[in-house]
Automatic annotation (TrEMBL):
Matches recorded under Gene3D superfamilies: Medium-chain alcohol dehydrogenases, catalytic domain, NAD(P)-binding Rossmann-like Domain
Pfam families reported for this sequence: ADH_N, ADH_zinc_N_2
GO terms of molecular function: oxidoreductase activity
Domain of life: Eukaryota
InterPro entries in UniProt: ADH-like_N (IPR013154), ER (IPR020843), GroES-like_sf (IPR011032), Lipid_raft_assoc_Zn_ADH (IPR052585), NAD(P)-bd_dom_sf (IPR036291)
UniProt protein name: Enoyl reductase (ER) domain-containing protein
Native organism: Chaetoceros tenuissimus
Signal peptide span: 1-18
Swiss-Prot/TrEMBL keywords: Signal
Positions of the Enoyl reductase (ER) domain: 54-369
C-alpha cells in the first residue's frame, strides 16, 4: 500500500512537471490550459485609456472566470449587447475627472439582454432561472455605484444587481431589448422628468436622429407637445417618419435665429452642440427648461439658472420601471428604435469595428452585437 501511494505521488509530480514544460516550451498553449483551469468565459476588455483614431487598439478578447451569484447579484448569460457614445468616451479617459470609478481591466459595454443563468434563492422568486431579462449596467446619476459592478456587457456572462433588471417582453428580441435600455431610459428621464414636457408646449430637440433624440422626439409627441428638431438632410426622411415634427437643417439654418423657434418651453440637447446653452437662452421662455446629456457648460444644478424651471446637464439614473415602460411601448408598436443590420458578432475585430463605427457616428439607429445563440 505504501509503494502504491508513493508511486501515485511520483506520478503526480511528473505530470505537473510535464505541464510546466509544455507551458514554458509552447506559450501558445498557455491560454487553453488556463481556460481548462477555470477561465471559462470570454470578454472584450481593455487595460488602459486610449483616445485618437486608433483608440480601439487597446481592446482585446480575454478569458475570465464566470461570476457567481450572491444575494442581490444575478448572473446573466448575455445574448446581445449594444454600444453607446459613452463607451468610447470612457475608453478615451475623457470622463476621468468626473470621479467615476474605472477599474482595470474594464469590460466594455453597458446595455445587455440575456437569460438568468445563476441567481440566489432569495432573488429567484422575482427572476427565476432562465428568465429573459435586460438592463443597463450603470449607476444612479453617475457611471458607478459603490461596491456594485459597472459595465461588462461585452461578455458571455455578466454579474448584475437584481435592482437593475427588467423582464424582457416576448414580443421584442434580445437585440432590441439591449438597444433600448440606456437610450430609452435617458430619453424618458429628460423628456418626462427634467423638462417635464406637457401637452401643447413647444419643444426643441437638438439631434432628432441620435439614438436618444429619436426616442425623445417620439415621447414629446406622445405627450402632445409641438416639436422642432435638428437633423441633417441625410436623416430628414427618417426623422419625418417619427411623427409630426418640424425639422431644422442644422447645416444650413441657425435655429436660434428662426422666427418660429421662439418662446420655447424646453430645449433638449442630445448632441453637445457647440454654444447650445448660450443659443437656447435666446429662444427659451423666461421660465423654460434646458437639459443636455452631452455638454457641461450649463452646469449641474437644475435650479442654478432661475427663473428657469430646469437648466442642467443630466446623467442617466438606472431605473427598471422606466425600462419596463420603454420595452412595453416597443412591444406594442408605440415606440420604435431602428437597429443597424447586420448585427456585429462576438469577436475582437467586430467589437473594435463596432466601437469605431460608434465614434464615427455615420449610422442611423442602434449598433448591436449578438453574443450567444
Amino acid at each position: 500500500m505504501f509503494r502504491s501511494s508513493w508511486y501515485l505521488f511520483l506520478l503526480s509530480i511528473n505530470l505537473l512537471q510535464a505541464q510546466s514544460f509544455i507551458i514554458k516550451s509552447n506559450p501558445s498553449k498557455e491560454t487553453s490550459l488556463q481556460a481548462n483551469m477555470g477561465l471559462d468565459m470570454k470578454t472584450i476588455q481593455y487595460n488602459e485609456n486610449k483616445s485618437g483614431e486608433d483608440f480601439t487598439s487597446v481592446m482585446q478578447m480575454s478569458n475570465q472566470p464566470i461570476p457567481k451569484a450572491k444575494p442581490g447579484i444575478a448572473v446573466v448569460k448575455v445574448m446581445a449587447a449594444a454600444s453607446n457614445p459613452i463607451d468610447f468616451k470612457v475608453m478615451g479617459g475623457f470622463l476621468t475627472g468626473a470621479g467615476w470609478s474605472m477599474p482595470f481591466p474594464f469590460v466594455v459595454g453597458y446595455d445587455f439582454s440575456g437569460v438568468i443563468y445563476d441567481i440566489s434563492s432569495e432573488d429567484a422568486e422575482a427572476f427565476p432561472k432562465d428568465t429573459n431579462v435586460f438592463g443597463v449596467q450603470w449607476g444612479q446619476g453617475k457611471h458607478d455605484e459603490e461596491d456594485q459592478p459597472v459595465g461588462g456587457a461585452f461578455a458571455e456572462y455578466i454579474a448584475v444587481p437584481v435592482s437593475r433588471l427588467s423582464v424582457k417582453p416576448d414580443a421584442i428580441s434580445h437585440e432590441l431589448a439591449a438597444a433600448s435600455a440606456l437610450v430609452g431610459t435617458t430619453a424618458h428621464q429628460i423628456v418626462n422628468q427634467c423638462a417635464n414636457v406637457q401637452k401643447d408646449e413647444k419643444v426643441l430637440i437638438l439631434g432628432g436622429a441620435t439614438s436618444v433624440g429619436m426616442i425623445a422626439v417620439q415621447l414629446a409627441l406622445q405627450n402632445g407637445a409641438k416639436v422642432w428638431t435638428t437633423a441633417s438632410p441625410r436623416n430628414k426622411e427618417f426623422v419625418e417618419s417619427l411623427g409630426d415634427v418640424n425639422i431644422i437643417n442644422y447645416r444650413q439654418d441657425k435655429w436660434w435665429e428662426m422666427d418660429d423657434v421662439q418662446n420655447i418651453d424646453a430645449v433638449i440637447d442630445t448632441t453637445g452642440e457647440e454654444g447650445g446653452w448660450e443659443h437656447a437662452q435666446k429662444v427659451l421662455k423666461a421660465d423654460g427648461s434646458f437639459v443636455s446629456i452631452a455638454a457641461f457648460d450649463v452646469g449641474f444644478d437644475p435650479s442654478g439658472h432661475a427663473p428657469k424651471k430646469y437648466a442642467a446637464f443630466h446623467c442617466l439614473a438606472n431605473d427598471p420601471v422606466v425600462q419596463n415602460e420603454i420595452a412595453q411601448a416597443l412591444a406594442n408598436g408605440k415606440l420604435k428604435i431602428p437597429l443597424v443590420e447586420p448585427f456585429y458578432s462576438f469577436t475582437e475585430q467586430d467589437a473594435k469595428d463596432m466601437l469605431a463605427a460608434q465614434a464615427k457616428g455615420a449610422h442611423t439607429g442602434k449598433l448591436v452585437m449578438s453574443i450567444s445563440n
